[in-house]
Design goal:
Elements: E1 3-13, H1 19-30, E2 33-38, E3 44-51, H2 52-64, E4 70-78, E5 88-90
Parallel strand pairs: 2-5
Antiparallel strand pairs: 1-3, 1-4, 2-3
Helix pairs in contact: 1-2
Length: 92
């Protein structure tokens, strides 16, 4: 199985709506590694690694986000290898 990597910048109303916590739950459910963090611009930054099917499912989820989020844009950079992560973490 080939490992896929994607780096995301998620814009809109994505901070203060449990985006990071819900991302962790979804990534754990899908068996993905990587991380998520808030950035000063008000966006959420995320890095995912896992099987292509699982990573694509997570990217689709990010386009909607949790119930209170209003995602306006998801910028995707595929095959951006920032390292291997066995689990998914919330970074401060």
């Amino acid at each position: 199985m080939a490992m896929k990597h994607v780096h995301l910048i998620i814009s809109g109303k994505v901070q203060g709506v449990f985006f990071r916590a819900e991302s962790k739950l979804m990534a754990d459910r899908l068996g993905l590694g990587g991380w998520v963090k808030n950035v000063r611009s008000g966006d959420v930054e995320m890095y995912l690694c896992g099987s292509e099917i699982q990573v694509r499912k997570m990217v689709l989820w990010c386009q909607q986000g949790p119930a209170r989020a209003k995602v306006e844009q998801v910028q995707e950079a595929w095959d951006c290898d920032l390292g291997f992560y066995a689990s998914f973490e919330i970074l401060e």
